[in-house]
Fold these 3 entries.
Entry 1:
Amino acid sequence: MRRKTDFPENSATPEGYGQMHTSCAHAGFPSPADDYLDGALDLNKLLVNNAPATFFLRVKGDSMTGAGIHSNDILVVDRSVSASHNSIVVAVLNGALTVKRLWQRNGRVALMPDNPQYKPVEVTHNEEFEVWGVATSVIHSLRKQK
Amino acid sequence: MSKAVYALVDCNNFYCSCERVFRPDLKGKPIVVLSNNDGCIISRSNEAKVLGVKMAAPYFKQKSFLLRNNVTVFSSNYALYGDLSNRVMNTLRTFCPDMEVYSIDEAFLRLDGFSTYNLTEYARHIRQTVYQWTGIPVSIGIAPTKTLAKIASHFCKTISDSSGVFSISDIWEKPEQVDRLLETVPVTDIWGIGRKSAEKLNRYGITTARQLRDRENKWLQKMLTVTGLYTGLELRGISSIALDDAPASRRSIRSSRSFGKPVTEKSHAQEATVAYTVRAAEKLRRDGLLATTISVFIKTSKHRPGDLHAEYCSYTLDKPTDYTPLLVHHASEMLRKMFREGHQYQKVGVLLSGLESPHNQQGSLLEVTSPQAQKQNEFEAKLMHVTDAINKKFGRGTVQLAAEGLGQPWKMKQENLSPKYTTDWSKLQEVE
């Protein structure tokens, strides 16, 4: 026996398929000017030099405020850039990701915060240390965090 | 003509390696990744292999063992793996444009053009760069043919001093070394030899790659058809399977998942079918293709022998399309016919095939495009374009067919899913 409820309500019935249902966005048709937008500026081109090697990370904490890196900022990190003395790097120190300025002199390595409330950390041979990538930009929103 | 040189680049324990990129604390620790719906183990880190965790083992049977041994368990995060795979492939492409992406974690490169370099050194450089750029460790096998390159890449992992690169090309002039190497490769490990073929070969006493290589052509072709002959030739260093860099146009698009819990309600199965069709149609449009045939399958769990039902149904359209509502309509109809009350369904799936590009579409003799039909076509194309654009901008599912359902109780189980670190702004890894 065929039941009427074979199709759930609002479903794609043979008569009425194609009902679209929007949850929050109001869609219109593209404006005729869309065809002329080919020269729009692309932030990717500005911020991402080498796409396969570029990652975004979210900053937590205020250890780098002196360098203009604040909590909740988005850090653009390029893994293909080699780190050198004074680079701002994302490093792995004993398994934890950290953003600091790299200090390298006379065979000694340290991770330098940019906030007087934090102390530099010298990296000794006993520690597991690796540069994860070099921070190339920071995206700082000027609007209140939700 | 100089000899061909192929490299197979293979990502090591790819899914596990992906999970580690943003979790450096897991370096050196055992981890595993589960299949869709947390069914079984599909990727193991070396540390997990050492513990004796078996590939494809059902998760529920291994759960307590993994817990006792502090193995970190992940549900599969294909958004992450897909993104990192693209990064690895794009990195490789900067080294060698002659490339075939063979799977999510493997690519063949043709390195003949670089023979002025020491190719083993070049491969080490590629390997080092891929790791630095993407965080993914790879092994590279080098050989005169693709089949041998595959074998070479296996040796990267078994021979400890090869530093991730192993070249059969380097020992090619020393046949006794090649012989010794191929003696250690069981026929089941040869690319292109399936389980059935291997059983057949074993019955004739052929168990190693060397024995297979040394059979005469006629015998190989008789036993294993022309593909077996090619395998034999390739093992002798005669390149017979070319680099397949063209067929980016795929033959079919599939969207299927196992359910989180068995589905007994027709409406849930229907919603899932619609959702998978929508997903498949999105992929179709992303690749700029049209589908001619849509198929739907449905099946119960094979672990419940009393409750077996599996069925497959196809519908071929008069005219290829990428219009979601039309595909959804046919998929729903097929599911409706197949679904039987009283069964506990484990999986449904949708397959789009007969794919073609709109540019080389064959015109129908009977087709008359009236101005109205033309207008309708344009409207449909615009609607799909706008839907895709909105979903891309605001996230998948912002605009959806009502038939996809809102609660989606059939959604799959992913209890240990890691964040979409690279594809969702709200899921970025945090750094202090």
Entry 2:
Amino acid sequence: MLNYALRRFLISIPIIVVATFLIFWAISLTGDPLQDLRQQPNITTEQIERVRENRGLDEPFYVQYAVWVQQIPTGGFGEYLLSPRPIAPDLQRVVIHTLQLVIAAEVLAFIVAVALGTLSATRQYSVFDYSTTTLSFIGYSMPSFWFALILQVIVVQIFELTGVRLLPLANLSSPNPGTGLAFVWDRALHLVLPVMSLAIFSVASYSRYMRASMLEVVGSDYIRTARAKGLKEGTITRRHAMRNALIPTVTVAALSFGTLLSGAIVVETVFGLDGMGRYFIQMLGRRDPYPIMGWLVITSVVVLMFNLIADLVYGYLDPRIRYD
Amino acid sequence: MSDPLLSIRDLVTQFDTADGTVRAVDGVSYDVYPGETVGVVGESGSGKSVTVMSVLGLIPEPPGRIADGQVLLEGRDLLTLSDAEFRDVRGKDIAMIFQDPMTSLNPVLTVGSQIAEAIEVHRSHLSDDAIRKRVIELLELVGVPNADDRFDQYPHEYSGGMRQRAMIAMAIANEPKILIADEPTTALDVTIQAQVLNVLQTAQDETNAGTILITHDLGVIAEMADRVVVMYGGRVVETGTVDEIFHSPKHPYTLGLLSSLPRPDADLERLEPIPGQPPSLINLPSGCAFHPRCRMGNDRQRCRFETPERIDLDAGRSTACHYYEEMDAEIQRVQDATGAEISTEDEDA
């Protein structure tokens, strides 16, 4: 298993190289990164030309790419285009914040979806099943920025009606978050609304998968065998049906992690969270290719890592799959 | 005879489909006595599996429904039991071996744990060690080699024959009074079939269970069964001992089955298949369901419009044919036509 994980990790390296190369090329097509600089009256052409030369912006994009790749092992993700500050510390900060948000959303979505999917499959065509199905389609089709705003409106309304400050509406921490447990609690409260807005789509989608695969499993011969043994329905569902039904659902959930990361862009912007999403939008606005490249490398690594996790969990759930 | 262990009385099981309500089982009655094997034969869709599923309470509701009848296990009507009471019967008093061992075991649990579960659910006081010991004993009994290692293996590490042996071990784990085997050898190779039948025989001897053996293989019936129930279109058309069924059938359908069966021991000139197709349950023929395919009925009015009721000829011997008295002549005709020797008694007489 360790061997397999290591091998998969090594295979990921060329994938990341190819991915970054393609993205670098795509960014180079979007035009001149110094365009904004040219429009500023107090910056001279000479100054602009100096930046051009220092950063090698005259070279073809593959040479620029080679230069960028070379400095990764020593210089992290390098410096910003227009200021000599290193990118890595900023990136580290926002990545940690975003992972808190996204992992919380993924775990919450998975647990809720498995429960909903299982319950609606075991009560197929009941009122519960129909309501869950309807709510899933609503959750599926609702834009997350809109849902985020609605959540904020609800919290504000509650405050206006009752005077209770239920949850913070923005930011990651209070001005004085405290330390230790107090800090963690403060962070958790701040993440409630963003996590809900981010998870709703995944709950809707994973629960549909869980329901479908539960329905398939519930009709299978080994469930009939379990019933013929005299087991209780609850035991049959938990011990025999759910574990089989989880196999495809886990795959879908882990492979959709990338979707959650892109969903975080919108949610972080709405809630003003200092995460990868907002950082990405800011850097895109500044036309600075280097932080964007760093951002994409991190995202690719995370997505590939979750693909690997999916495969490993798959092997754990299904004894027919063994890695050696 | 002593009292029957299991008595199915006028059982009616129906399914709601898009095309209307289907009576998959329509007034089926038969008995199972301790230690005997009752073979149930019939084509696909004759209701043989649905009958035993009803006995075990495994009919999915909806769309299925047991509309009428009784299933008496030692005099107690199972159909009136609560869910919890019925669960207690399932796997303990009545156990079942299913047709396809490839799909009947849960792929993500070890074989041993699945058999252990069958014991655990009915005897929760046993320790894990005691249960494991018992499971290994059972696996050895059904002829699984290296039972101790095999306990911790998954179904995909078992061959088809081994899986069916494991299913048999699971079924006899609680020494059931009634053992139901629903086409236990249909999904297996011919060479494995004989082995599995032997194991089934051993299992039955071990538990002295009354056994219901469902099959469409008359060879298996001849080998295993004491008495035979022949089903057609959701109804029982004939019952009798193996000898009676094979040598003096009292229903033209039974005779049709025999005359369409190639037998190495009989010097057949040709086979006489049953004409036509098995009936669709949605649109069952009126009167006797077999009349459109019957060589003896000749489209007589009575066959077409009057559903034949069970006629008891003797203890455990019955037929559902208006003209069963004509069967001797019909057997003679088939013998002349095919060269088969069905009625050995005639020659003795």
Entry 3:
Amino acid sequence: MNRPVNPKDLPLDDDNGPLYVAQKKVYPQSISGTFRRIKWGLMAFCLGVYYFLPFVRWNRGLGAPSQAVLIDLPNSRFYFFFIELWPQEVYYFTGLLIVAAVALFLMNSVGGRIWCGYLCPQTVWTDLFYAVERLIEGDRRERMKKDKSSDPMKLERISEIVLKHSIWLLIGWWTGGAWVLYFNDAPTLVKELVTFQAPMIAYIWIGILTATTYVLAGFMREQVCTYMCPWPRIQAALTDEWALNVTYRYDRGEKRTSVKKAAELRALGEQVGDCVDCYQCVAVCPTGIDIRNGPQLECIQCGLCIDACDNVMTKIGRPKRLIGYDNDVNIQRRQEGKAPVYRIVRARTVAYSAIIAAVGGIMFYTLATRSLLDVNVLHDRNPVAVRLSDGSIRNAYTVRLLNKSGYDRVIAIDANGPVNATIHVIGIDSVTPDRPMIVVPRDSTSELRLLVTAPAEGNPEKSIPVRFHVTDIGLGEVASATDNFVAP
Amino acid sequence: MTDHHSDIDPVSGRSTTGHEWDGIKELNTPLPRWWVITFYLTIVWAIGYWIVYPAWPLISSNTTGLFGYSTRADVAVELANLEKIRGAKMVALGAASLADIEKDPALLALARAKGKTVFGDNCAPCHGSGGAGAKGYPNLNDDDWLWGGSLDQIMQTIQFGARSGHAKTHEGQMLAFGKDGVLKPDEIVTAANYVRALSGLPTRKGYDAAKGEKIFAENCVACHGDGGKGNPEMGAPNLTDKIWLYGSDEATLIETISQGRAGVMPAWEGRLDPATIKAMAVYVHSLGGGK
């Protein structure tokens, strides 16, 4: 905890401080425990999904891409297993982003920076890079020693460094490689990539992502979280007193002593804190902070200090979770001799869950009932209406038929509204007069110029609503759109 | 700068910038070094930009930069590429017959798109941007055609024009029966009312139908045909329908009969290439009135 400081205690000519400070290199120590296991599991899951998802196949029928997740930019389609989205359905992404944002808020109000500590790509890849570093250069103390050493480098040390950076670059390269596979048929692209037949843009993107992965996870690391990411700031503004955060329970920990001294004092029946000032929580921290200073911007709440402290507490025979998911309210309550209270269900968590359920529900409903046949109608603006030589009225419309299915359709068009109206589509000599039929190929649209003609008799209104029905004559699927039939 | 040497935040014990908002002071947090370096690198980068890209204004031009880059050159390249892509398609359009173009959805879409653009550039001043026409300029959306509304006839009219001076132009005009002294004023009034009666419009009191019929038979039938149904060979409009190029009221008709009419449609052959004229014909035909 930052103690209040009396300004009088500080030197009066304390200057404005330095303009900038160097990045303090962090050497996280390896650790094992509950949260480390959770992190390993989630890392394997996240990376597994990211690296292998493009290879998952999904049968959509002949002529359609067979990749389960595919962003097909040239054809403006997004495929996700059974879902296929067109550009005009981009609102599903809006829904997805709303759900994602509120899920972030919900995580935050339940367990603090769960996203930052376990799921954020920056954390996952940095964790992976640290694992590589540890494997090659050794644990915290060895790495610190090697970095500090002023001896001229031996071949062994040089090969270590080369190996580490090579593996990092390899991981970065694979990260970029997996990225481009989401935008093209993965097996085909892999074949093209290795035979240098792939489009230049694929290599450029792989290069960019190799570089960003290498730089962000290998060098920038906690600097990204501390200085670049907006979420720590937003998170701090969104949290409340009931949110569980990785917390040093100073009510239990203070005053800190050594193991030996604590035993002596306890024997005398004196009150002693459990913290033995072993600095294990600091040693394992991937952002290099001391959790005992209280909640802080730099803390990504990965829980590794909990594992470190638990191990120490077990060794010295004190109860675990001197550091744990907790909040200030409970620290206060324990200090007052009351039992801690945990409120997972409270107004904001209920509200966030409700928003996720509502938006998610709407998205699922609209996706499940998504029409595979649609029609858009645009009335001609100039001229709005035409008088024909026999005195009848003609209006022209631009009609776009959308066939979102995986098969060709034969679509019949009807227009209902004006009395005794006839319709004609330019370029179509229909075998069924007044009910033009058009073949719309699978997964495409057809734009038609459609004329509606009606006699002036029986249609005296200036404007008559006209409803366009389009029917798949094979399946009976129907879509419709409304416009107006206007007199000159 | 205010002197804030002793301006220390009592909670964190750190110096502040001295800037205060509603009692909250900003802590003086040093920047990370890589941030400062990045900032200076952007300045270096900007200097590089000045050197390789057009940057500094001079009196009558600007520095061109080592790369010789210009957005205008980019546009020229893009346009050339576009022309290359279009070229092949326009060849296909030029090779197809008019009737085939309307039957092929891809060619129809191309012809309509091309036709619409060219129409806007060349035809809209008289016929209006949507081809709705105006007094003296025919509406191209309706089914009434002075020189015929089939694809071939429309194309011919676009190619050679009407009274355009082109060797193959449509000829034929409405004579000035009054100005040239062929008909007397009262005969013109009678003829005007006779024409109104042809398409069911009311006539003025005391109008002599028999006299009108006689005047029409002697002067008008030659071009407008028996019963006034018109003749596309001569550009003589049908007088029995509901469409009037100049107006159907008596005063306008009297003006038309006595002064004559001879609107000009320019010939586009030689000004537009054949494939473009084809696209235009398909576009105009597809506006709705094509026969």
